[in-house]
Write a structure and sequence with these properties.
alpha/beta, six-stranded mixed β-sheet, five-stranded mixed β-sheet, 15 strands, elongated
């Protein structure tokens, strides 16, 4: 190191404020590196999720990337044709009015600028009368200027509203035509599946229309100001002044576009995450009863908080990127532009352009004020034009989302309903080569080994229950405020219980019955008589109206409806719901155990051959109802409660699989309540609880299996 360098270093370090500056530089660099790594990690996670969801996602992502290019311009023009269908439309009238007001505002800006210059000249020459009149005129001209500014905001808001109405009606016309809304969200033929349709149709269209209406003012006003104030500036400084300013802005714009990252992908990702968050809440509302039956509040809270955490991380990163963009905008467009502005005035004066060096003091004062105002307006106009690239990049994200929606509803309108493509089942063995289950179903599993494992599983579940009961101890009785008494034990017993609906209808009056262990009960009755209401009372979703109910804890009763609930998560999460992977391992359960549970209800192994336990998908849309019911049965065997309520939950599986489910419940000592009217299920039950559906009448009777064909025909 040379002496000069050493002296410079010592001088820098000798000043305390230089330590602060050095700290800020180091801290800023460290923060930038941390945020960059966070961005890479989030992008890697998103790519991994897309890869699992769709093997060709990487290629599609590169094609559909939200950026400013010819695809963006083409999509934007297509959307404009929808928003402004003709020059006779109301939208065009708003656009024309907005244009006129923008011209008027620029004209008023020129008048105000000239008046400021005259006032400065009058002040220097001590022309107080002229100064007074000038201030008065300045005050008068500001009134229409304020009115024009307010009118601009009004027309801009109205134009955004009209754009939204046009786009929304256009989408509704195809999306709500016939059953397109069902096909686009449930079937997804030919790749036409609208993810987070509610987010796209509502928030995304609203955000796009608001931003695009602002963009017109952002483009038109700066262009008009640049033309007008350049002309005015040339009249004072000659061509040298504008040439210096435009040269600077050209260089700063190139530098900004080179350094600043694209914001379009951040906007698109933000809309996507908000859509996922909204969908999660909507799923919670739609499936609230089944989630309550599973005591799944903690799991749903974890899922929703996880979605919220993703939004938080993305928003924090996006805010940091926008802060960097704002720093660049302020430095390049605001502060450095002021330096260029000084050069614009000094250089022509030094060269005596337009006779600047020969003017009097008052004329120089007037020209200085005029030049300063013109430069400020020109700088602001060019600055807005440069910053406009950031706004356009944001709009590219919304354009990407909205145009995808429009393209999909267009396909829905044009393609019509097509037959589903039939596919051969992969690796499906021939019937003669497949072992037979006890019920006659084809099987790819060793039934003897599976039965042996099932006995071991029952023992492990019993051990877990004993440990759980020891940990929780005896649960005290609970008196319902103004209602009945609930006692906790392993049996199920009703004494003088009334089942009353929230509307006050008595569904069952003075219910007295005892359900013995492993004595399955079939619940029958007409529609609307309250068959499922019995389980709502047992699960304590409804308060006990009166009487005494003895029941096991709520975790010892599982309710399976006809269409089981599938949560957001992996295939493993569907089997263990509401348990997490960590809770599963805490119980000593392995992935191999889960595969055995699935094999019981899926002997052909079609589920695990198509998906891995770690696969993440929208299972409500991915699985057929039959597969959902098989997964729900595996979930039942995983939890192995004392009681389960099956509400037509085997309607879409084969008779052989249905028999296997009931036989497995018997092997695992699970007492079954079945809500069904199918005679084929009578053989699996010992008692029948029949609700008559009027005056709260009911009947609890033992099933005579020699006459079981008459059981459901009363």
């Amino acid at each position: 190191m040379t002496n000069a360098q050493s002296s410079l270093t010592q001088h820098i370090l000798s000043q305390p404020r230089n330590y602060l500056a050095l700290f800020i530089i180091v801290a800023g660099t460290a923060t930038l590196i941390t945020k960059s790594r966070q961005l890479k990690r989030l992008n890697a996670q998103k790519r991994e999720q897309e890869r699992r969801k769709d093997p060709g996602a990487k290629k599609k992502a590169s094609q559909n990337y939200a950026k400013v290019d010819m695809v963006f311009l083409r999509r934007l023009m297509d959307i404009f044709k929808i928003m402004i269908p003709s020059w006779k439309s109301k939208e065009f009238s708003y656009l024309a009015g907005l244009t006129g007001l923008l011209v008027l505002r620029t004209y008023l800006s020129v008048i105000i600028t000239k008046q400021l210059g005259k006032n400065g000249q009058a002040l220097v020459t001590r022309n107080y009368k002229g100064l007074g009149l000038g201030v008065l005129w300045f005050g008068i001209i500001t009134i229409p200027a304020s009115a024009v500014n307010s009118a601009l905001k009004y027309l801009q808001a109205m134009m955004a509203l009209r754009f939204r109405m046009r786009l929304s009606h256009h989408v509704h016309k195809s999306y709500l035509d016939g059953v397109n809304f069902y096909r686009s969200t449930q079937l997804g033929q030919n790749g036409v599946r609208i993810d987070h349709a509610d987010q796209r149709v509502t928030a995304d269209i609203d955000n796009f229309c608001t931003k695009i209406s602002e963009l017109y003012s952002t483009i038109f006003k700066p262009v008009l100001d640049m033309i007008l104030f350049t002309y005015k500036l040339v009249g004072i400084t000659g061509f040298e002044g504008p040439l210096i300013m435009y040269s600077y802005f050209l260089l700063s714009g190139l530098l900004k576009n080179t350094v600043i990252p694209s914001l379009g992908k951040y906007v698109a990702r933000e809309s996507e995450l908000e859509g996922m968050y909204r969908t999660t809440h909507k799923s919670l509302i739609v499936n609230s009863e089944e989630i309550a039956f599973y005591n799944g509040a903690e799991t749903e809270k974890r899922i929703i908080n996880s979605q919220l955490k993703q939004i938080e991380e993305h928003h924090a990163l996006f805010s940091f990127v926008r802060a960097l963009v704002s720093v660049a905008d302020n430095v390049l467009v605001k502060y450095f532009a002021s330096i260029a502005g000084y050069l614009t005035m000094i250089i022509p004066m030094m060269r005596n352009a337009r006779g600047l060096g020969e003017k009097s003091v008052d004329e120089m004062t007037r020209d200085y004020i005029l030049t300063s105002q013109y430069l400020g307006n020109l700088s602001g106009a060019v600055g807005e034009f440069v910053v406009m690239s950031s706004k356009v990049m944001k709009i590219a994200g919304y354009t990407h989302r909205v145009s995808e929606l429009l393209e999909m509803v267009k396909k829905l309108k044009n393609q019509g309903v097509e037959p589903f493509e039939a596919r051969e089942e992969a690796n499906e063995p021939a019937p003669q080569d497949v072992a037979q289950t006890s019920g006659g179903a084809r099987s790819n599993v060793n039934r003897a080994a599976l039965d042996e494992w099932l006995e071991e599983w029952r023992t492990r579940c019993n051990d877990n229950r004993r440990e759980r009961n020891k940990r929780h101890g005896n649960i005290p009785d609970r008196q319902v405020n103004g209602g009945g008494l609930i006692r906790y034990a392993e049996d199920l017993h009703f004494e003088h219980v009334d089942i009353v609906s929230p509307e006050g209808k008595i569904l069952a009056k003075d219910l007295n019955m005892r359900v013995e262990a492993l004595k399955n009960v079939m619940v029958t009755g007409p529609n609307g008589c309250g068959k499922s209401s019995l389980f709502r009372v047992i699960s304590e979703l409804w308060p006990l109206h009166c009487g005494v109910m003895t029941k096991p804890p709520s975790e010892e009763l599982i309710f399976l409806p006809q269409k089981p609930y599938q949560s957001f998560g992996t295939l493993r999460d569907q089997i263990t719901y509401p348990h997490t992977k960590k809770q599963m391992h805490a119980r000593g359960v392995t992935d191999e155990d889960l595969k055995n549970l699935v094999s019981i209800v899926d002997p052909e192994n079609t589920i695990l051959s198509e998906w891995d336990l770690d696969d993440k998908k929208n299972w409500q849309q991915t699985m057929s109802l039959g597969i959902m019911q098989r997964i729900a049965a595996a979930r039942l065997f995983y939890h192995r409660p004392l009681y389960c309520a099956l509400d037509e939950c085997t309607s879409c599986v084969s008779g052989e699989t249905e028999d296997v489910i009931f036989e497995t419940c018997k092997k695992l000592n699970i007492t079954v309540f079945s809500v069904s009217h199918r005679p084929a299920l009578v053989k699996h039950h010992d008692f029948q609880l029949h609700f008559e559906g009027r005056e709260g009448k009911w009947e609890f009777s033992k099933i005579d299996h020699s006459r079981e064909h008459e059981t459901l025909c009363r």
